[in-house]
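Fold it.
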Amino acid sequence: MRNSLILFVSLFSLFSCTSDDLLNNQVELQSKNVISIGNVSILQERNILSFNSMDEFRETVKKLGESRDLILGNYNQIITENENLKIVGFHSILDDYIAALSEADNYYDSEEHYKEFKDKYSNLYFPEYGDDYSVYLPVSDKNVAKLLNSNGEIEIAGTILNMKDITSYEQLVELGETMSENDIMLTTDEYLNGTPELTNGGDRRLKVRVYTQPGSSGVYEEIVVDVSFRKKGAFGAWYNYKSETTLGWVSGSFWSKSGFSSHDYKFARVFSNGSPVPFRGEMYVDFQGFRGEIVYFRVDI
């Protein structure tokens, strides 16, 4: 299967055969800017997407969430997701968030530059909680954010709605977007089902969480190995940035990702005779920011 959902301009039947009429028809259709996702046709005007009903909007969000390839089988196989889906010709608040993360390294070298960063992306969320000065997406569902303009707006049945719904740091913690402490079970010499917050060299942080969540597209349950990281800038500020990680079974399969935190490695839960097969063994994370120091942990979930 292809790794991305193809979004295309919906074309109606063209009845004229002359080249001039054909050109006129194409210009007229393009000016209407109708985008089709699944069975839903979406009108784009003034850089805002318009839906006929809330049901159509929810159907589209669901379709975007299912735009991934599933590799099923044993625990040496992984679920790969379409994380870079973009609607061509439409600029969303998620595009702003990705752009902000891409530029973050240029703005955390001084308080003055950081203030410029906040002004430039004032439509995003800067909680400034403790030493966490990272920028966050103010929308809890990234699939929803793909459909919202830079102001977080969408039009449904003729009414413009603002769908920003993140207003507190506690919400980010509940969504697993932060690196706040949570309960990690520790054995004598190793970490179990994740790690506490780890540092290396004083300017990089890493944290691993292992948990389950409901699946979709034929998967009943997913096992997530969530690898989160941060970088330290000036004035004690920690922020999200682009890096590389590798997750692997000790003496077994491994996978790599490049991009912003977090890197979520997802496995389809295997069932045998109606019962879940344990996800169990020794794993490791090789984080670029740790300069070759490997983090080992045990999973049993």
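The helical segments are 19-32, 54-65, 93-103, 111-120, 142-145, 169-175.
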